[in-house]
Amino acid sequence: MQPLIDNARTFGQRPEKFAGLAQGQAPEVLFITCADSRVVPALITGARPGQLFELRTAGNIVPPYASEHPTGEAATIEYAVEVLGVQHIVVCGHSHCGASRAGARRRPERRTRRA
């Protein structure tokens, strides 16, 4: 944990690397993927800071849209498309996903009608 903390503390001391990012963002891609710590979108794609707008959820699950029950996922997608103007949406899954495996194991309840 300490190396992560140390890097976070020195992050702002490297303005030459990130000065342009302070002006705003204009990513072309919304990258929807799993929150699994082994999935690193920038590493997978070779993207630099500011090139991907990311939405990460367990199992890259995005619930159906319902205006009466807004979700963070819907807000992220809407912001990416309407405000940032992303041109592409990528949904990236991965092997051995625990969330997908758990979802596949769940069985819907059987409801039977009795007369």
Describe the protein's architecture and organization.
This protein is of the alpha/beta class and 115 residues long. The chain has one domain (25-105): Carbonic anhydrase (Beta-carbonic Anhydrase, Chain A, 3-Layer(aba) Sandwich), CATH 3.40.1050. It contains five helices and three strands. The protein has helices at 2-10, 15-18, 41-45, 72-83, 98-105, and strands spanning 29-34, 52-57, 88-92. It has a three-stranded parallel sheet, covered by helices on one side. The chain is globular, with a radius of gyration of 19 Å. The termini are far apart. 10% of the residues are buried. The model has no long low-confidence stretch (mean pLDDT 86).
Characteristic terms for this protein:
115 residues; alpha/beta; Beta-carbonic Anhydrase, Chain A; 3-stranded parallel beta sheet; 5 helices
Write the layout of secondary structure elements.
Elements: H1 2-10, H2 15-18, E1 29-34, H3 41-45, E2 52-57, H4 72-83, E3 88-92, H5 98-105
Parallel strand pairs: 1-2, 1-3
Summarize the structure.
Helix content is 33%, strand content 15%. The chain has 115 residues and is α/β, with parallel strands linked by helices.
- Please name the CATH architecture: 3-Layer(aba) Sandwich
Strand composition percent: 5-15%
Annotated CATH homologous superfamily: Carbonic anhydrase
**Residue windows where pLDDT falls under 50 for at least 5 positions:** none
- CATH fold-type name: Beta-carbonic Anhydrase, Chain A
Number of discrete domains:
1
Q: Helical percent range?
A: 25-40%
Radius of gyration: 19 Å
Major sheet details: 3 strands, parallel
How far is the first residue's CA from the last residue's CA? 61 Å
Report the structural category: alpha/beta
Output the CATH class name: Alpha Beta
Shape: globular
